[in-house]
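Read as chain and fold; for instance:
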Amino acid sequence: MYSPQALARMQTVQTLLRQDAALSAYEAPQRPCPVAIHWVPSALDLRPGELDACLGLVHATSGHDYAASAMGWDPRRKRDEMLDADMMYLLLRPAQGGPDAILGFTSFMFTHDDPPHHDRPVLYIYEIHLHERLRGQGLGSRLIQFVESVARACHIPKTMLTVFTANTRAKSMYHSLGYTRDECSPDDRTTRNRVIPAEYAIMSKSMD
C-alpha cells in the first residue's frame, strides 16, 4: 500500500514522462535504434526476466569496475539492492523485441542525504546503463535530465549519484551536466609511501 506522498510522486513521474518530448524522440522509428520507454514504479513490479536483463547490463557495462574494486562483483548482493521496493525504473526496450529484452535502464529512489544532512530529501540516481547500440546519442544525459525534472517537480533540492573513479567517461558526462564531488564522497587515502585513490566518488547537483 503506497502512501499519499508516494502516489503523488508516481503520478508526477507518469505525467513528466508523457510530456517529455526530448525523451520520447528516442522512440521514433527513424532513430538508429528506436526504443520503447517503460516506467516501473517499484522494483517489486519488475518481471524476473526484466530484472535479469538489467542485472546483465550492469555486469556488461560495469562488471570490470566492480571486479577491480574492494567490494568485488557480487550478483546476489547487487540483485538485492536493485530489488528495493522504493526503487523506480525507466526501462528501454527495443521497439521490436521480446517483453524482457532490455537495451538500457536507469533506476532512482526518493531517499535522504547522508549525515549530517540526513533530514534533507534527495533523489538518488542508482544506475544508468546503456547497451552499446544506444550509446553516443545523448540518451544517457537525457535520462539524467529527466530524473532531475522529477526532482524539481517534487520539490527535492538535490540529486545524487555514485560513479567508479575509473569510469572517466561517465564522470565527464556528469561534470558536463553540472555534477560535482559531494561532501560525503570518500577521500583518497594517504599512506607513508603513496596516495591510494578512492574507488568511487559520490557526486551531486543542487536543484535550486
Notes: The mean pLDDT is 94. Residues 66 and 74 are 8 Å apart (CA to CA).
